[in-house]
Design goal:
The structure is a homodimer of 433-residue chains.
Chain A (H helix, E strand, L loop, with lengths): L12 E6 L3 H9 L5 E7 L3 E3 L4 H5 L9 E3 H4 L6 E5 L2 E5 L4 E4 L2 E4 L2 E4 L3 E3 L5 H6 L6 H19 L4 H8 L1 E4 L3 H21 L10 E4 L11 H13 L3 E3 L4 E4 L3 E4 L2 E5 L2 E4 L3 E3 L16 E3 L11 E3 L4 E3 L13 H16 L13 E6 L2 E6 L2 E4 L1 H14 L3 H17 L17 H5 L2
Parallel strand pairs in A: 1-2, 1-9, 2-5, 9-20, 11-12, 11-17, 12-13, 19-21
Antiparallel strand pairs in A: 3-4, 6-7, 7-8, 10-18, 14-15, 15-16, 22-23, 23-24
Helix pairs in contact in A: 1-9, 5-6, 7-8
């Protein structure tokens, strides 16, 4: 297999970073003035801001507002080489990775490929449900929902029409909760105006959670409050609800009647993206790679895993591994950057800055260290934190305008069904299918 | 075939408008307080602002900024029924249209389906070139260009790399000229920063025009100036250049050496979208439907054609038909709206408000009635006119910010390869493929 072209052997040691998410991007920037040659690989040419996917899915924001071209990030950075590529295999013996655009030797390999949707082996659900772990999936979800409304308009059978309107979300974590809330507000403020010919009292939004509370891992108060907010917005919240199967129109539940819906959103679990070539014994729970406190993958000195991929049990406060959130990913990346640059290595300790989740306008929950509050101020804090976290001043501006706009007009105007058809000539584009 | 569902027979006469472009949208709004029931059909759920497609293609604007959800337009309008549908056939005998979502009886039928790319029967070109007559095609073009740069990065053969960078545009009308200018500025200000590993002195942008000048139909001064502007931006402008064939990498020319490029943009001609079921004798040049001064299609009192579809020779000043531009479409729609609402009908006379075209920052040409100028002021006028023509205050705001941003930073930040994969469950979405 030929090498990835145009990456010089310039005597420097080469750090290959697989994945341009929060972890990979942070690390690549941390190595800016390092002694290394840095090669960053991602299957997209942009960095995506996961926390706001649900707003893209609910037509609140455009994809471009929460994604940022990776090349732009590194315009000023010398000897970094970014490539749009998918990692196919790691040859730990030869210290070579194989990708769809060629192979490449590494001195240090950093695996930061994140996590993907976990269907727990249920193929029916995988085929019929809509996931939400990438920007393109978020766009697909938007298109699915809007398409189903158009189909409902042309449906004569009342039952079928209802199930085209109904939306069932599985998974009561932040994604599920924020999505349910946003859809509920869409149903309340926008859809009746857009589709006067449809009766949205018939539409039911259900949130199913297997455990006994939503926002598991948040404080009791926040979980309770979030549930109350959702119900206030007329979302049916079902706790201890187990989904057994889904055929595209009927959700089968354990010990309950099936739910009728053409839109099942699956936010019930994630698993680490797998890396062919990594040894069995390195894999831990949820497919995560077992790492020591220096984020070195079990059995290797020169292969690291950071972010959602990594499973570290050395951090006293997190004996079962860290939560798979952006904060952990960025802190691990920052530390690894330091460790690679210096002689004496430091172990990782996660400092939890707290958790936020928003259900709807003026409705959010905040668990900060030693401080918990809900409602308007939590919501304002949520807006501020997320706005500041977005990459790029212009993106920030555009997001702010969109938010302010929908806040005051009770209306988003991005309800577009846009589907670029793939050009067979454009190889890369096809690969993303 | 079953009827389109949920459109009541309420005794009112039914006007069916096929197409939600400048003509169809304008007419639907003009019939707001009319005695008719209005049914509007479009294959998309949004209205698209064609004049700025080229900025979407060159990553200057997001699709959402120049498209507007049709349902939002009619929120306040009673007894209008919008459907996402494609017109398959007209049965003029029965006064029934057949679409992909069912059939429907009409009392009046207005055909406003616009024009599409004309490849003049060359299948190779149709298969290998990139058109730009729809928003999705504009996105495809953007993806094709960006993908080719990524491929060039991984290309070892110098010749192939060059042809991956080269861009050839066929057609020296406003679309071709504005596109060539935008690409030239991208090459000048952005690409070298984004792809420091590529040598953009190797990249050649060529504009091929069959006639002896660009912007045919504009004033001599404007044509000459536009050509000068393009050459100033280092675009190779070839007049009297005839493209014979294109295989995806080589453009065959009449009496000249072939050009090497992986990106051939075809803006060389349009033809009216065809409407199966309409009689032979109604079709005129370029597949346009022959209409009288009341935009009635030849041989019918109750079938009308407006916009790019219509070929009217009754207008003294335009014996060969009107130019296929938004101004004509909107003026015809406005008149037809009046005529349908009143007893005594008026014939159509086109008032030309002038033509504008922009090549790059501070570089534009303006032909106004009795007033012609080029350069900075033409450019400012172009910005203003287009900004005001965009539907929706927020879109206007977003477009303005994007323009101001790139003007002052010499940078757009929308260089994203985003490709939603189609959900097989979402019927409508598939149809748009």
């Amino acid at each position: 297999m030929k090498n990835i072209a145009n990456i010089p052997d310039n005597g420097k040691q080469r750090v290959v970073i697989a994945g341009g998410g929060f972890a990979g991007l942070k690390l690549a920037r941390a190595l800016k003035k390092s002694r290394f040659q840095v090669v960053l690989l991602d299957k997209n040419n942009y960095h995506q801001f996961q926390p706001l996917f649900y707003q893209v899915a609910t037509a609140g924001l455009e994809p471009s507002a929460i994604s940022f071209p990776l090349r732009k990030v590194f315009q000023e950075q010398p000897d970094i080489h970014f490539r749009v590529a998918t990692l196919d295999r790691v040859d730990t013996e030869k210290q070579v990775i194989r990708t769809d655009i060629g192979s490449l030797h590494y001195d240090y390999l950093v695996l930061a490929l994140g996590a993907t949707t976990n269907y727990f082996g249920n193929d029916n659900i995988r085929q019929n449900a809509v996931p939400m772990k990438s920007l393109t999936e978020a766009i697909d979800l938007r298109n699915t929902i809007l398409s189903n409304f158009e189909l409902a308009l042309n449906e004569t059978d009342a039952e079928t029409r209802k199930s085209l309107l109904n939306i069932v979300i599985v998974g009561g974590g932040p994604t599920g909760v924020e999505l349910a809330g946003a859809l509920a507000e869409m149903k309340k403020y926008i859809l009746p105006k857009d589709y006067p010919e449809l009766d949205f009292n018939q539409m039911k939004i259900s949130l199913l959670e297997a455990s006994d509370k939503v926002l598991n891992g948040y404080s009791e108060a926040s979980s309770r409050k979030a549930k109350a907010y959702l119900e206030k917005l007329d979302v049916e919240v079902r706790l201890k609800a187990m989904v057994k199967d889904y055929d595209g129109s009927q959700v089968m539940l354990e010990g309950a009647d099936p739910l009728e819906t053409h839109t099942l959103i699956w936010a019930a679990g994630v698993k680490a993206n797998s890396v062919p070539g990594m040894p069995e014994e390195a894999a831990g729970r949820g497919g995560r790679l077992v790492v020591n406190e220096f984020t070195q993958v079990k059995g290797f000195d020169n292969i690291f895993a950071i972010g959602d991929m990594a499973l570290m049990t050395a951090d006293k406060k997190y004996p079962n591994g860290h939560p798979q959130v952006a904060q952990v990913a960025m802190q691990q990346a920052a530390l690894l950057g330091k460790n690679l640059n210096s002689e004496k290595k430091k172990g990782f300790r996660y400092t939890d800055k707290g958790s936020l989740a928003t259900v709807g306008r003026n409705l959010a929950v905040a668990d900060l260290p030693g401080l918990r509050f809900q409602g308007f101020f939590a919501w304002v804090l949520w807006l501020f934190v997320h706005l500041m976290a977005i990459l790029g001043v212009k993106n920030r501006l555009i997001v702010f305008i969109n938010w302010a706009w929908s806040y005051f007009t009770y209306d988003q105007s991005l309800r577009l069904l846009i589907n670029p058809k793939r050009k067979s000539s454009a190889k890369l584009v096809e690969e993303e299918v």
